UniProtKB/TrEMBL annotation:
Source organism of the structure: Dipodomys ordii (Ord's kangaroo rat)
Protein's pathway: Energy metabolism; oxidative phosphorylation
UniProt-recorded name of the protein: Cytochrome c oxidase subunit 7A1, mitochondrial
Pfam families registered for this protein in UniProt: COX7a (PF02238)
Biological role: Component of the mitochondrial respiratory complex IV (CIV, also named cytochrome c oxidase complex), the last enzyme in the mitochondrial electron transport chain which drives oxidative phosphorylation. The CIV complex is the component of the respiratory chain that catalyzes the reduction of oxygen to water. Acts as an assembly factor that specifically drives the homodimerization of CIV complexes, mediating the formation of mitochondrial respiratory supercomplexes (respirasomes) containing two CIV: supercomplxes with two molecules of CIV show improved activity.
Membrane topology: Single-pass membrane protein
Amino acid sequence: MRALRVSQALIRSFCSTAQRNRVENRVPEKQKIFQVAAQWAGLVEDNGLPVYLKGGRNDNILYLVTMVLTMGGTAYSLYFLAWAACPHKK
């Protein structure tokens, strides 16, 4: 009987949803340090462009090609699913 109580206590402590050790979120602090260092090194400039277009013309072309291929693949997949869902004449 005692073994049953001990095993129940172990299971309860292992499966507890309460967090035993509070872990402090230090991500914002580290992020600020990284951003200040990047600005100091001249790596970051805020020109209002999204990050995927900051590389210039080549990034813009790559983005457009990726979007066209993604949309084309999605449209083809939806067309094929609609074709497969319709009954075919034999």
